[in-house]
Amino acid sequence: MGPMSTQDRPATLADVAAASGVATSTVSRALSNPGRVNAVTRERIERAARELNYIPNSQARALTSGRTRCIAVVVSDITNPFYFGIIRGTQQQLKAAGYTQLLVDTEESDELEDGMLHKLRRSFDGAILAASRLTDRRLTAVADEIPLVAINRQPRGVPNVFIDTPNGIEQAVGHLVSLGHRQIVYAAGPETSWSNERRWRALVRAANSYGVASLRVGPFAPRQYAGAAAADAVINTGSTACIAFNDLLAIGMLARFRERGVDVPGDLSLVGCDDIFGADFCNPPLTTLTAPIEHAGRTAVAMLLARLDDDAAPVSRQATTLPTHLTVRASTGPAPVSRSEPAPQKGRG
């Protein structure tokens, strides 16, 4: 009895290669990255694949090429609406490029993030790290082992997409100062958050330039339930204005202010960060920093795939900065005269 024919089993890359008279590696390139094979050869391979009813298998392709065509997208809290935009952006860009998205939630834990990246390493070709909780040193070391792009981190030598919320914080301070506020408190996020420190430094820098006071309370979890404790801490400072680490914390603070009879913005103005879904539905609608979150996800994927698709290219040092802007809503208003220092300009106050 003769050898098993391709009719008795699914066709393989080797079958397509034999039928088209080329190497198996050429077939793999032609089917996964057509631009790297000349048109005549590619057409012959595609015709042979059709005649043999060849169906690509991602696991078999990974074994022969070392590529899974899967990208890990790592977020610190999947329940945070900030990441919804990141995930939408990465999913759209990956789907268009023929890749699968592997979503990983690290639950705000740097240890879990590090462990998951290594545990799942054989399951993906590269990773997008959104607001990583790893230290700069550890993130740089991981980038030497795994092709990755970081979002909202800027470690030296690591490709990254930076959403410029520090500039937005400076806009927020200018907005509050223009309304007569002379002391601005920052409700801080997690100590492990790199963005948290950048936002605080931007607030201090802007407050100093305007000659107003700044102080900090926290840290607080970047979630709505932490808003009650944050609101109480802000009330204790006697400040007339607050900038919160993110919108979830700010929305939780609004609820607590209502419970305690603090009028927003009559008694205290509040600014959030990220402009998540729902920030304009709360009472009052939240003044916040609007960021191109979905665009950040798409940009990160484009940067990563450009590196993966050119194996001969040197390690990318690319960095992209995306601007943010202040969106003014009803949660900010003039400082209450009884709780603010008189404005120096005549006719104001």
TrEMBL record:
Positions of the UniProt region annotated as Disordered: 326-349
Highest taxon listed in the record's lineage: Bacteria
InterPro entries reported in the protein's UniProt record: HTH_LacI, LacI/GalR-like_sensor, Lambda_DNA-bd_dom_sf, Peripla_BP_I
One annotated GO molecular function: DNA binding
Record keywords: DNA-binding, Transcription, Transcription regulation
Pfam families cross-referenced by the UniProt entry: LacI, Peripla_BP_3
PANTHER family, A to Z: LACI-RELATED TRANSCRIPTIONAL REPRESSOR, TRANSCRIPTIONAL REGULATORY PROTEIN
Protein name: LacI family DNA-binding transcriptional regulator
